[in-house]
Protein 1
Amino acid sequence: MTRALSRRYLLGAAALAVAAPLAGRVAFGQAQERLRLPPLIDTRASGRLALRAQPGELSIRGGPPALTAGYNQNYLGPTIVMQNGPLAVRVENALQEPVSSHWHGLLVPGEQDGGPHKAIAPGEAWTGDMDLSQRPCTPWYHSHAHGSTARHVYAGLAGMINYTDGRDDQRGLPSRYGIDDLSLVIQDRRFDDSGRMIYNPDSTDIQNGFQGSRILVNGQFNAIAPVPRGIVRLRLLNGSNARFYTLHFNDRRPFFLVGTDGGLLPNPLEMTYMRIAPAERMEILVDFGEGPAPVLMSASGLPMKILEFAIDETQPRRIVRVPETLDAEPAWPDADSLPLRRFALNMGGSSLAEVKQGAGIHSVHAGHGAPARLIGSGPNGELGIGMTDFGINGRAYDMKRIDFAVKLGAFERWIISGGGAGVLHPFHVHGVHFRVVSTAGAPPKPEDSGWKDTVVVDGQAEIIVKFERTASADAPYMYHCHILEHEDAGMMGQFTVA
Ligand code: C2O
Ligand code: CU
Ligand code: CU
């Protein structure tokens, strides 16, 4: 296959159908590579950030290269250190199609949020003067171009942010990037028989979300991460389009959850198994002080190896105990006293049933959007009725429709329903951090504690949201399922804050 053709797999419009490969037939080499961390860009001294979305290539374990995309590099983007204060950002698009750069977890106004309304044309650049102010946490950034988010993120247009207040030493948290503070982007990828990474979603992949059979960490398969004999901080991003992981170590050693999407927890929470949904970030502390280094695994579905570690005895033991307290949380208002907004996540199967029952879901089609463009080989609607029934509250995403308006400074109680029966939807809201009140009628799990911007809807989730930044009708905030195929198919809406 030529480069020109494989380019289209990851970024272009043509769907060149290749049957899903059997994992076992992909021949990967045996020697293990050392895990590479993304290069670090520290914006604290300069107050500036320059990113360039550009084409690249990625070859896994000596297989044929896939044509990918990255920010400033072949695949994925640098880890960006940010702090409170002014930041002048410039994002250039050196690709052949519109992309954007959404700052997932940064509390910036809609104008700077990089959603679908802020697409950057090929050859153009976006600039913005941010005035950052938020808690230390681990946001990320990724392309969010209308109808193309799934393909863009899969192709590599994503990276992590270490948002810091410079006080981690005082907290007793590891903060030496690449030594005891590791940023890990976990993604599953699909490969063809020749070992080339591919993106070839069919209607089942849209329904379930596109999943691959191999797990990459920072764009590498089967790598090994050297760590000191001591406490190591792992900043985990589930950068997969759709796959959930249940992370654990092969020797079942406990680890400590210290931060979720939008900030640090009041106290570390001891865990042995931890679920991480697409778009969620979890910061954990792992004690490598004793025994051989363990392997990070996932127990969702078939057991999968995520990452191996090896003790690097040349590194000094710097932090040897887990801190007892971290960042205090302010009191939240009582959910019952707040205005309530309800969201029902609809997808093909369920709305199809409603169509059959005559529930008037046909109006969804009037909303068009671009659900089928992801597949790409034909006009919209090619996938048929089931696939265009993705939406929220019976309506597919429409860039021209503002779904509701919120008052700046307000607290609201949101109840999101959907999923269940094996389908879980990670529901994400732009421009806010929220608190989870309950999921599936039960109190929040450790994974749902702290400051969140993404919550798993398994039947139902209830959250309290505070709106602290503005978003106009020209650049509204999005809320959507972060299974990216669901999002692109229409499970998204938009709101203003003023
Ligand atoms: Cu990760 Cu709409 O975003
Ligand atoms: Cu976001
Ligand atoms: Cu979904």
Note: Residues 348-356 form the longest helix (9 residues).
Protein 2
Amino acid sequence: MANIAFIGLGNMGGPMAANLVRAGHKVVAFDLAGAARNQAQADGAGIADSSVAAVKGNDVVITMLPAGKHVLSVWNEILPAMTKGALIIDCSTIDVESAVQAHGLAAKHNIASVDAPVSGGTGGAKGATLTFMAGGEAKAFAAAKPVLENMGKKIVHCGGAGAGQAAKICNNMILGISMIAVSEAFTLAEKLGLSHQALFDVASTSSGQCWSLTTYCPVPGPVPTSPANNEYKPGFASALMVKDLTLAQDAAKAAGAATPLGKHAQEIYKAFDAAGHGGVDFSGIIQHVRDLAGK
Ligand code: NAD
């Protein structure tokens, strides 16, 4: 069992740290928010009074923070205090450029590093069923994998520094676009007098089949577990979809890739968010698509 420091105990990091405790690791945790620290303590983690204090003497450090600027600032603080030969893993969703910079900082301090963003949301974090998309050297990935296995069910090594973040934003760009496509199809079906169930029965077994339809169907009924059956409670909030589509657009611009549908999906989700629906599950975009008809 490892000695692990966990920094960033929010909606995702809190339950992930609790799963590491459950798996038998000795976890020392830190978050700026007192309520998050109290919850981690109740879950069985030791609490440090700063990020630097948390990492001292530990073999593995995990960060789960909002954005690239938080990760770079925390890594800058903690790397000099980490044990030589230790491993640092960032599970936040951040821009590829900051992820590559973070790996560079770790290398300067002779610390092995992995970017390992996740898919699976808060349910996956609680149930230890997350998918981890990892980037970094093979040796660092091999050391990270057994730790990540306590928090997830699928761990994929995507390539070198930043490859985990690249995989995450490419996947979520598909997701954002495909949810709008499925929502447009149901909206058109409604206007044509075709029932939700009829469209679902055909498209779910035809070439229109995709995850946004068969697992996360944006209309209530055909998939009883989808958020559409629960007033579009997240799930995966639309504000986070805006974040990921924006990261994808930034990366596309920097890399010179053409992603016209990704750009349009970003604009559609931004408008939904700006109308006050950032906290609604991203499949709630179907309501916005329906409303576009009147405009
Ligand atoms: P959150 O806002 O609930 O948690 C972030 C935590 O980081 C907060 O508790 C905050 O106090 C803490 N924090 C911020 N700066 C800090 C610092 N300098 N030192 C210590 N703690 C600090 O966010 P979340 O939903 O847990 O998401 C975390 C990351 O995971 C994000 O990058 C997000 O994009 C990604 N993600 C979230 C989901 C989801 O469904 N919530 C799914 C996949 C990926």
Note: Residues 250 and 256 are 10 Å apart (CA to CA).
